[in-house]
Specification:
- This protein is α/β, with parallel strands linked by helices and 346 residues long.
- The chain folds into three domains: 54 residues, 434 Repressor (Amino-terminal Domain) (Orthogonal Bundle); 127 residues, Rossmann fold (3-Layer(aba) Sandwich); 127 residues, Rossmann fold (3-Layer(aba) Sandwich), CATH 3.40.50.
- It is 42% helix and 15% strand.
- It contains 13 helices and twelve strands.
- It has a six-stranded parallel sheet with strand order 2-1-3-4-5-11, sandwiched between helices. It has a six-stranded mixed sheet with strand order 7-6-8-9-10-12, sandwiched between helices.
- Keywords: DNA-binding, Transcription, Transcription regulation.
Length: 346
């Protein structure tokens, strides 16, 4: 028998051995199957036995071996979230909601930022697939990704913020068109008839949807769309300021502005030194300093927490085996009226 220090029969080595479920069952005085049922939250175990098993786990320092469990069951108890930029407030709140839902399921959430790069998006998705995650919540690329269609076949996926291009899938979206139309309706009620629309690039899904909602709001009010009051581009302060000031030099300039996301609102306000030149402003997306600015900025607020909760609930339903047709769910947006909601000055 090996009795050398730290050998297999050394008491100190035995004390350091990782406890198994067999050890837990013996300590709790229950059958191994009973301990397994408690661990997996299965029914038909008495509260008294559940308490004994939990006490034994705590005493022995037992931790479930999820790697071994994944090999046996094919379930890794982990899901992935791909977003454009985790530092963006929308993405951060979305991630927090999905993480909370995953924690309720004793699942781990892995989050990664694509940095708006389609190639990085493909690489990260490949990493998620290779780690055999149980499912994904994804902010998709704005272009078709045939690799996504092929490589992720059979893996539960829910898309948020915009639908994937080229194939049907479960999607959870904000009410982009309805929110933009509400912004226009609000400005019209204040007396505005000349309303500018400053947008992020028009080939972006949310920009296109919100611009359509903007035009629908004008139509509802009997106001003709004027291309001279529309600009789209990357949210650069100089470019947005130049576009806005060109509109102000028109014979019939705008008295109000609608911006299509928080980045465009911030770009315009940054270029103008923090405030418009007497015009009303409603932006789509709330942002951190909107309420602190002078005047404070009225916004159409998305609900990223509700979007994340809805997407996570749908994802876990699919992981649990619920079939049926794909679902497209829309989470309402809401108008928050602040100091930039002013009537025309002229």
């Amino acid at each position: 028998m090996n009795t050398t220090p730290n050998g297999p029969d050394d008491p100190q080595n035995a004390a350091r051995a990782r406890p198994t479920l067999v050890d837990v069952a013996a300590e709790a005085g229950v059958a191994l199957k009973t301990a397994s049922r408690v661990l997996n939250r299965e029914p038909n175990v008495t509260p008294e036995k559940i308490a004994r098993v939990h006490a034994a786990m705590a005493k022995l320092g037992y931790r479930r071996n999820d790697a071994a469990r994944a090999l046996r069951s094919g379930i890794t108890a982990s899901v992935g979230l791909l977003v454009d930029d985790i530092s963006d407030p929308f993405s951060a709140r979305l991630a927090r909601a999905v993480e909370s839902a995953a924690a309720d399921r004793q699942s781990l959430l892995m989050v990664a930022s694509t940095n708006y790069d389609p190639e990085r998006h493909r690489e990260l998705l490949g990493m998620f697939i290779s780690r055999r995650l149980d499912g994904f919540v994804i902010v998709p690329t704005p272009t078709r990704d045939e690799g996504l269609e092929h490589d992720a076949t059979g893996i539960p996926m829910v898309f948020v913020d915009r639908p994937p291009v080229g194939f049907d899938a479960d999607v959870v979206l904000a009410d982009n068109r309805g929110g933009a139309a509400t912004a226009v309706r609000h400005l019209v009620e204040l007396g505005h008839r000349r309303i500018a629309c400053l947008s992020h690039p028009a080939d972006n899904y949310t920009a296109a949807e919100r611009t359509e909602g903007f035009r629908a709001g004008l139509d509802e009010a009997g106001i003709a769309f004027d291309p001279a009051l529309a600009y789209d581009g990357e949210p650069d302060p100089r470019a947005f300021t130049a576009a806005y000031r060109a509109m102000k030099r028109l014979d019939d300039p705008p008295t109000a502005v609608f911006t299509t996301n928080n980045r465009t609102s911030i770009a315009l306000l940054t270029g103008l030194g923090g405030r418009l030149e007497g015009d009303a402003l409603v932006g789509f997306d709330d942002f951190e300093l909107a309420e602190a600015m002078h005047p404070s900025i009225s916004v159409i607020a998305q609900h990223p927490t509700a979007i994340g909760e809805t997407a996570a609930a749908l994802l876990f339903e699919r992981i649990d085996g619920r079939g049926g047709p794909t679902e497209h769910r829309v989470v309402p947006s809401r108008l928050i009226v602040r100091g930039s909601s002013t009537p025309p000055m002229r």
